[in-house]
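Example record

One chain of 304 residues, shown exactly as stored in the release files.
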Amino acid sequence: MPTILVTGGTVFVSRYVAEYYIAKGYDVYVLNRNSRPQSAGAKLIQADRNHLGDVLRPFHFDAVIDVTAYTAKDVDLLLDALGSYDEYVLISSSAVYPEYSLQPFTEATQVGANKYWGKYGTDKIEAEQALLDRNPNAYILRPPYLYGPMNDIYREAFVFDCALENRKFYLPENGEMQLQFFHVHDLCRFIDAILDAKPYQHIFNVGNQETVSIREWVELCYGIVNKPVEFISVFEDIDQRKYFSFYDYEYYLDVTKQLQFIPDTKPLFDGLQEAYDWYKNNQEQVSKKPFMDYIDTHLNNYNK
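Predicted structure tokens for this chain:
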């Protein structure tokens, strides 16, 4: 029975990853401060990542899946504290690619500051480099927008809420901006694939091969709630993050290398249905933003 360590383990990606491997029968340890409920079957190592001491020294892990490293310091602290381990997988981000680079971004695209992601992106770059400096054989995964059950970020949940309240949907411009998603289950499948194959390549873009327009994405979400959608297009110079879930930033990852290991990904409708089924019973776990308040205050009379 493989033994793995998942950093975090209580929220969205890290929790999903932990429960995925628990379901596979793995011996799953989670590293967190025990400030939230733990998943059934997870073995808790209670510690603050900034003050690990010797708490990890007695363990050998077949794999470390690091979901919660956001800076170089985060990586160094964990590496300093680990005893022995075989494989290390860092969940990084597509935010490492500068917005001005040629798209689709490939793994060979030069990383750099992205004006939309700011410090989050540059910190992820430094985290990746810190890991590779100390463990060149570690794996780094760069996803686009992750979605699915347990998503505590107010993205698809915002659209579900609009549908449930029979609201018109305020769409940035004509709604043609493209988004690229990746379901957390497919992320786990890909981790399985690389841990099994141990490929020579160590940095991978991961994501659905196809993109979807924001209009199509909203239509899918309303359809899952079984509600019709009426759009109002917003053409004024308004920061769309005040009333919509995503920045006004369109990008596309080349995931050709990923497809060599998992040639199929979950259809977006099916993944959103799973997200909605979870959300119906876990609304309190989502960090909701005041999009509706802004719409009601500033856009309710907008009819362009």
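Notes: The mean pLDDT is 97.
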